[in-house]
Amino acid sequence: MEFKATDIALFLNGEVIGNNDVKVSGISKIEEGKPGTLSFLANPKYEHFIYNTDSSIVLVNRTFKPRAEIKTTLIKVEDAYQAFASLLDLYVQTKQNTRKGIESPVSIDETASIGEDVYIGAFTSIGKNAKVGNTTKLFPQVFIGDNVTVGENCILYAGVKIYDDCVIGNNCILHSGVVIGSDGFGFAPQADGTYKKIHQVGNAILEDDVEIGANTVVDCGTFGSTIVRKGAKIDNLVQVAHNCEVGENTVIAGQSGMAGSTKIGKNCRFAGQVGLAGHLTIGDHVQIGAQSGVAKSVKDNEIILSTPAINYKDAVKTYAIIKNLPKLRNEFLQLQKDVESLKQAKEAGSK
Amino acid sequence: MEFKATDIALFLNGEVIGNNDVKVSGISKIEEGKPGTLSFLANPKYEHFIYNTDSSIVLVNRTFKPRAEIKTTLIKVEDAYQAFASLLDLYVQTKQNTRKGIESPVSIDETASIGEDVYIGAFTSIGKNAKVGNTTKLFPQVFIGDNVTVGENCILYAGVKIYDDCVIGNNCILHSGVVIGSDGFGFAPQADGTYKKIHQVGNAILEDDVEIGANTVVDCGTFGSTIVRKGAKIDNLVQVAHNCEVGENTVIAGQSGMAGSTKIGKNCRFAGQVGLAGHLTIGDHVQIGAQSGVAKSVKDNEIILSTPAINYKDAVKTYAIIKNLPKLRNEFLQLQKDVESLKQAKEAGSK
Amino acid sequence: MEFKATDIALFLNGEVIGNNDVKVSGISKIEEGKPGTLSFLANPKYEHFIYNTDSSIVLVNRTFKPRAEIKTTLIKVEDAYQAFASLLDLYVQTKQNTRKGIESPVSIDETASIGEDVYIGAFTSIGKNAKVGNTTKLFPQVFIGDNVTVGENCILYAGVKIYDDCVIGNNCILHSGVVIGSDGFGFAPQADGTYKKIHQVGNAILEDDVEIGANTVVDCGTFGSTIVRKGAKIDNLVQVAHNCEVGENTVIAGQSGMAGSTKIGKNCRFAGQVGLAGHLTIGDHVQIGAQSGVAKSVKDNEIILSTPAINYKDAVKTYAIIKNLPKLRNEFLQLQKDVESLKQAKEAGSK
């Protein structure tokens, strides 16, 4: 997509100073400006960049008065930051709207129900009795199993896989490589040392407004459902095991994982590479620091860190002591000697 | 799939009490019962749920005598738990049997050999001289490289990728996004700071009865094979590097990883997010706690934990001390003061 | 592919001793030799294996004199190790050359530009204005978004997904399940506890000679680019967040991850499962030990380990002390008692 300076000015109710016909197809920071892109200048601290930027167009406040020659084209608007934000919304919307209709070939079971104004990319497979809501976009190579429901206005990027019977709410975004509803990890040990598979007959449910990062896995419930509640945001390469529950508006960063049946409350924030044991209850508004290992349930509002995870402040104190352990140990060895000589002096004195 | 109460009763040799025609299409716990699902009541502790459950059908023991009115339909059977287990087996079998035949389009090389009664989903690609055994199911968008052998009665879910020359045994289950046989991570450092790729010409072999979780990766051998032995079960997002060996009936939980050439014995159990260095030998029946980092070889039957991993009991003791380090340090500082005043007293005394 | 002993001898300018017509289709170590494979003997320490190996052909130095009967076929060459290495190069080249042309069906937008001598596997989708360079191989089920550029001589294995606007340099290798350019993890917290998505309008750029392991994710920049510099090698299941930069010839092992906007210098080496916080600057030639957690920026040439990561030598010292903490604590308790009795003795003495 390319946009001409005059068209952008028209949309923003702004005024072009420079080349009316220059075109841009992307966005860049003013300090890293590239030809063919648009930048904005709102913060006066960045003003000096405008005199040398390679951006083809820069949005500026109507009040902006250059103090030197400017080679780029300016568009003067009431509020350059707000104007930029609305351009960004338009840009993303326009971009997404270039994907529409049903490409060929696709494999859609005749019993599936497909909403209005959807996009279905080539090589996508949709199973029996599956439902895809209005305006939802399924990129190429998506797999939608039997009896799956995908709500309205969702985006499933290339290669997302949804197992049979799962439910995806409205306005969900699933990135490439996401797997929803794969079997939980359940095996019954047998007397001869082998394991017998425990059938995983539940499903996974994502409520509305959930976003899930690339290559993250949400297993199905062994029985019943694994649930990601409304508004939860999960980053890349995360593992959500069978029968877990991720609470409303909870945010989980990359490569974190939780074992089976752990329930996480609302509005929690987990940093990257956190691990949670199974069958825990994590309260609301809990924050967990990066790489922490959580082996016990956690109450509302706690902030925890470390392995095994403890209160954040205690963990920071402990980290500081651990860092000084070699020094502390030397002092301890010295103290042992001191005490030894005091003891010997005492014995000598008492003779 | 829907099943009518009378049909279920017939299959279980049971008796319907209530609505003969009510249909169910799923399963739920009696305490979370939903309309259109079947539950069972075996444990008397759960009896109170039966009077209010929304499950459409509940299996009960023939000896069950309700103590109040029940609105749901009952099926009385000899042993409700056993009956439920056999229904579950039937359910899973029936479900899997809905996938059969070869969908269209697929890309199967003319030199590939495909067994009887297979399922091959749309957009699956099968390479030169590949072999797929009888009754194996390849879901949509699976990639089977050249010279790959997939045994009988396997399930490869949507989007599994098998590189050239790999071997998958019988009765294996590979979940979506699994990659088998990708290049090992081997590069020879050059004098100019760049790296030269070391060709990875081995393969990966999964023996019979192996199950591998979603988005897990098993690299090929640099030379020779990476091997996952009979009956091993590997969870989601695990990394098995080049030339590793995972022993018979060993179970590895999510997000664990091992570096190249590490050999793991039989019947081991690793919790989640465990890391193992390369070139280690891990004995049989070894257990490793979550997030442990293993830098040395481990003997048979050991139970280890922590980073660097040590004996489990010692690790638990150490964790307890670390948790108390701030207190211990304060006591230490006090002790230093005490010794200092003893020393001063001694010096004063000796004057 | 099968090769006959005489053909191999011809290529290597060697001499067959044994069966001219025996064929091999693979390679094995002499100590693990299998029928139908070729091995080499260069190191005299391994000589005893040649008398019993099941390899069909063994390359040996021209000077090799057997001390017993040999059942396998030998090919005598000037330098068995060099001969083997050149066979390996040939093997890999030949193997890759079996994939050529454009399979069917594929989905290539009419505005895409495809180079000469490419391989495009079945079910691959190439978007608007995308460019694919000469001799590049796109395996089946690859997704190339709109405006993506893939350079020359690249290999994108089955199921690689490249989001719109990303740039892949020349000679890059991307393994199955790799996702390039997925949205960065950015959400603005709202007053009501929900999160508003921050549009991710940047891209991801891989420079030349980059290799990326299976199921690794490189997010796009929120704004601007996420960059993996020339010659960097990234293993499986790694997370590279939005706006990160991985320096030239830097090597990152499996399951490591970094949060947004962290910049990593040249020629660094990270072991497995390392985590880096966001907005850090990691210098050149930095080495980080396995499972380390890095919360602060790191200068050139540092070697660090542990969580939080500290200098490697200090970390090893600290690990040793931690391992001995139970013993140290007991000694401390003893010392407390000793000091207590010294204090009591002093008080008794001073009475």
What do you see in this structure?
Three copies of one chain form a homotrimer. The first copy, chain A, contains four helices and 40 strands. With 351 residues, chain A is α/β, with parallel strands linked by helices. Chain A folds into three domains: 3-96, Udp-n-acetylmuramoylalanyl-d-glutamate--2,6- Diaminopimelate Ligase, Chain: A, domain 1, CATH 3.40.1390; 101-313, UDP N-Acetylglucosamine Acyltransferase, domain 1; 319-351. In chain A, strand 22 (187-189) and strand 23 form a beta hairpin. The longest helix of chain A is centred in the last third of the chain and has 26 residues, at 325-350. The relative contact order of chain A is 0.05. The mean pLDDT of chain A is 94. At the A-B interface, helix 3 and helix 4 of A face strand 4, helix 2, helix 3 and helix 4 of B. Chains A, B, C: This is UDP-3-O-acylglucosamine N-acyltransferase.
Averaged pLDDT of chain A, please? 94
Largest interface: A-B, 59 and 64 residues
Low-confidence stretches of chain A: none
CATH topology of the largest domain in chain A: UDP N-Acetylglucosamine Acyltransferase, domain 1
Please describe the biggest sheet of chain A, giving its number of strands, its sense, and whether it closes into a barrel: 12 strands, mixed
Provide the β-strand percentage band of chain A.
Answer: 25-35%
Q: Tell me, briefly, the overall form of chain A.
A: flat
Q: What's the CATH H-level homologous superfamily of the largest domain in chain A?
A: Hexapeptide repeat proteins
Oligomerization category of the chains in this entry:
homotrimer
Number of domains of chain A: 3
Terminal CA distance of chain A reads 98 Å
**Gyration radius of chain A, in Å:** 29 Å
CATH C-level category of the largest domain in chain A? Mainly Beta
Structural class of the secondary structure composition of chain A?
A: alpha/beta
Instruction: Return the CATH architecture of the largest domain in chain A.
Output: 3 Solenoid
Secondary structure tally: strands of chain A: 40
Number of helices of chain A: 4
Helical residue percent band of chain A: 10-25%
Protein name (chains A, B, C): UDP-3-O-acylglucosamine N-acyltransferase
GO molecular function (chains A, B, C): N-acyltransferase activity; UDP-3-O-[(3R)-3-hydroxyacyl]-glucosamine N-acyltransferase activity
Keywords (chains A, B, C): Acyltransferase, Lipid A biosynthesis, Lipid biosynthesis, Lipid metabolism, Repeat, Transferase
GO cellular component, one term (chains A, B, C): membrane
